[in-house]
Amino acid sequence: MPRPPVIPANKKAEIILAILSGEMTAAEAARTLGVSGQAISNWKRCFLKAGCEGLESGTGQQTRREAELMKEITVLKSALGDSYLQLQAIRSRLRPAAAPRVGRPVPVGAGQRPRAAI
What is the pLDDT of residues 62-116, one digit of tens each? Predict the structure, then answer.
């Protein structure tokens, strides 16, 4: 049996909303899209679950996924900072120690153009 076509998420949402509003049945949607009735049921279940999770989080609160991502960002920033400090330490060990600069006498006439011989 051939693999069903890939349906974009926005198209799936349109279909599920049409089913929920009574514009079409799940069987009609499955026939129209060339997918199984089980696929339609799975889409509907996922759609409703995601919608409920969105309502549970409330306004201004982070979702669980957002909170996980924020924790991961914090860990990655810390690791990046540690890596930067290690790199700076390695660079400082690899640089030759700079000799103290002692003023050298500047020869007389330095910076002047030589005169042509007469």
Answer: 778 888 999 999 999 999 999 999 999 999 999 876 656 666 666 666 556 666 6
The alpha helices in the chain, defined as continuous H runs, are: 9-21, 26-33, 37-57, 64-94
Tokens of 79: 């690791």
* Cα–Cα dist 106/97, whole Å: 25
The span from the CA of 20 to the CA of 40, in Å, is 12
Buried b (16+ CB within 10 A) or exposed e, 41-78: eebbeebeeeeeeeeeeeeeeeeeeeeeeeeeeeeeee
Taking the C-alpha atoms of residue 47 and residue 94, their distance in angstroms, rounded to an integer, is 58
Q: 35: which 2 tokens?
A: 């997918």
Q: Which pTM value belongs to this model?
A: 0.47
What is each CA distance from 100 to 90, 94, 96, 103, 106, in whole angstroms?
A: 22, 18, 12, 10, 18
